[in-house]
């Protein structure tokens, strides 16, 4: 793609600001600030997208609510990765028939990855006629124009055309809280893993210009944010489409020079684009957490090829060995899919063996869920779900035992923890994260929220650490 076509022009963005002003005028003419509810499903990228949607809604004069029955505008920002998430969305859409009946002027919007899929858009068009606006991730920047069409033309609007995607800078953002922030450094994906719908719904890889990212991170650091997470479908392929020779490691090095008391994290990564240069950069950085989420997906080379994952187990292990060499305190997590079409029990057990060898701090584990429109959805899949569940249980039992052992090694240590929220638990009223991203349940007063504290770890379990602030 040509960069001149990827980055939106000032004229294009100004057009959307004009529509924002028109909608604000409509709202002001009604004599009260409308309320909006934005409900987010799925990954951190969707969370970041929702914060942009909220920024545009706020610029339109909206206040916010978390109750659909109070909302004049409801936005469901959806995920298409797994069937379970889609079924939840359909359930929520069905429930909104009642709020629409109580308030016929309510505007209901469906957006995000799920909305971009043609079969979903068609199902909504036919079966969920109370939904007013449907748009995919590539049309997010046009939200003001699309919403204005709903208001003025009094008809349903669908914007789900297949397109490679663009970059819109300067969209207002409403960040939830003042401790953690998400910064999208690139959009889209070029990998086309055979099980994954993302490249079909989020378009091709496109990187933001480095100076834009640096300015955003600098602003967040100056505002006192303590944890900044860089986002992309594959963050370590950042820069391949830029005219300047920046790669992801170069970007991390530049960000690390920004003064402030903050931690940089990033997700998600692809092993094919991970490198010794990246790990060396992480190791010598002041702000980049020694935490790596590097999805392996399978411990079988044959299954990896069927998944269209362009690496093998040996390469993955070499990467982990080097990363741990330069960062002995590295916290390592990964994604694993069990029951890929055609996978045998012995191949699933190869994955379990890999987990035993690597000893991840934690895993995000999934039983294969076919996504319509992907190559894997058309593959023969003779193994019944009940058999896959047995393999999955073996995997989880193995990883849970490893996580419990690793966490037990923290007991008696003192660690630096960012205290980020109240838990609602009387015994452990606070919670936070270590530099490596480990969850810590804490005793202490809520006055320390948003600060780094030295914590003595007194107990642990499979999923978390427990401690007291020193």
How is the secondary structure organized here?
Blueprint: H1 3-6, H2 10-29, E1 35-40, H3 44-59, E2 63-64, E3 73-78, H4 83-102, E4 107-112, H5 113-116, H6 118-127, E5 133-135, H7 143-153, E6 157-159, E7 180-184, E8 186-187, H8 198-202, E9 206-207, H9 210-222, E10 227-231, H10 248-256, E11 263-267, H11 276-284, E12 291-293, H12 301-306, H13 313-326, E13 331-338, H14 345-358, E14 362-367, H15 385-408, E15 414-422, E16 430-434, E17 439-443, E18 452-460, E19 465-469
Parallel strand pairs: 1-2, 1-3, 3-4, 4-5, 5-6, 7-10, 10-11, 12-13, 13-14, 17-19
Antiparallel strand pairs: 8-9, 15-16, 15-18, 16-17, 18-19
Helix pairs in contact: 2-7, 10-11, 11-13, 14-15
How would you characterize the overall build of this protein?
The chain has helices spanning 3-6, 10-29, 44-59, 83-102, 113-116, 118-127, 143-153, 198-202, 210-222, 248-256, 276-284, 301-306, 313-326, 345-358, 385-408; strands at residues 35-40, 63-64, 73-78, 107-112, 133-135, 157-159, 180-184, 186-187, 206-207, 227-231, 263-267, 291-293, 331-338, 362-367, 414-422, 430-434, 439-443, 452-460, 465-469. It has 470 residues and is an alpha/beta fold. It folds into 4 domains: 3-159, Methylthiotransferase, N-terminal domain (Rossmann fold, 3-Layer(aba) Sandwich), CATH 3.40.50.12160; 177-289, Transcription Regulator spoIIAA, CATH 3.30.750; 302-405, Transcription Regulator spoIIAA; 414-469, Nucleic acid-binding proteins (OB fold (Dihydrolipoamide Acetyltransferase, E2P)). The strands form 5 sheets. A 6-stranded parallel beta sheet has the order 2-1-3-4-5-6, with helices on both faces. The protein has a 5-stranded mixed barrel with strand order 15-16-17-19-18. Strands 7-10-11 form a 3-stranded parallel beta sheet, with helices on both faces. Helix 10 packs parallel to helix 11.
């Amino acid at each position: 793609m040509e960069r001149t076509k990827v980055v939106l022009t000032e004229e294009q963005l100004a057009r959307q600001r004009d529509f924002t002003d028109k909608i604000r005028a409509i709202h002001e003419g009604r004599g009260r600030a409308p309320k909006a509810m934005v409900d987010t499903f799925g990954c951190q990228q969707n969370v970041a997208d929702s914060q942009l949607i909220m920024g545009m809604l706020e610029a339109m004069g909206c206040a916010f609510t978390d109750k659909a029955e109070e909302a004049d505008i409801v936005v469901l920002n959806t995920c298409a990765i797994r069937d379970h998430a889609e079924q939840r969305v359909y359930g929520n859409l069905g429930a909104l028939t009642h709020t629409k009946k109580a308030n016929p002027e309510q505007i209901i919007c469906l957006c995000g990855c799920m909305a971009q899929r043609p079969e979903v858009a068609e199902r909504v068009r036919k079966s969920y006629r109370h939904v007013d606006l449907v748009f995919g991730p590539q049309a997010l920047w046009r939200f003001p124009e699309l919403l204005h069409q709903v208001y003025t033309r009094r008809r349903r609007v669908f914007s789900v055309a297949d397109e490679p995607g663009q970059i819109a800078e300067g969209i207002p953002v409403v960040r939830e809280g003042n401790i953690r922030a998400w910064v999208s450094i690139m959009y889209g994906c070029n990998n086309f893993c055979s099980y994954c719908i993302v490249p079909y719904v989020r378009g091709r890889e496109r990187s933001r210009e480095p100076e834009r990212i640096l300015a955003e991170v600098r602003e967040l650091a100056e505002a006192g944010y303590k944890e900044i997470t860089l986002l992309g479908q594959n963050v370590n392929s950042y820069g391949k489409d830029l005219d300047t020779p920046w790669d992801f490691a170069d970007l991390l090095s530049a960000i690390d020079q920004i003064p402030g008391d903050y931690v940089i994290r990033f997700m998600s990564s692809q092993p094919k684009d991970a490198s010794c240069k990246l790990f060396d950069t992480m190791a010598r950085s002041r702000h980049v957490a020694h935490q790596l989420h590097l999805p392996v997906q399978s411990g079988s080379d044959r299954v990896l090829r069927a998944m269209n994952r362009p690496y093998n187990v040996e390469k993955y292990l070499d990467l982990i060995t080097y990363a741990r060499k330069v960062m002995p305190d590295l916290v390592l997590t990964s994604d694993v899919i069990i029951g890929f079409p055609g996978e045998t029990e012995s191949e699933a057990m190869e994955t379990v063996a890999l987990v035993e060898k690597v000893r991840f701090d934690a895993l995000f584990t999934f039983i294969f869920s076919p996504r319509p429109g992907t190559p894997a959805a058309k593959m023969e899949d003779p193994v019944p779900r009940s058999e896959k569940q047995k393999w999955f249980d073996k995997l989880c039992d193995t990883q849970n035992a490893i996580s419990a052992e690793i966490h037990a090694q923290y007991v008696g240590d003192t660690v630096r923890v960012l205290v980020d929220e109240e838990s609602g638990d009387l015994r452990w009223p606070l919670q936070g994260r270590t530099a490596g991203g480990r969850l810590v349940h804490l005793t202490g007063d809520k006055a320390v929220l948003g600060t780094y504290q030295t914590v003595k770890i007194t107990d642990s379990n499979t999923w978390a650490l427990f401690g007291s602030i020193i």
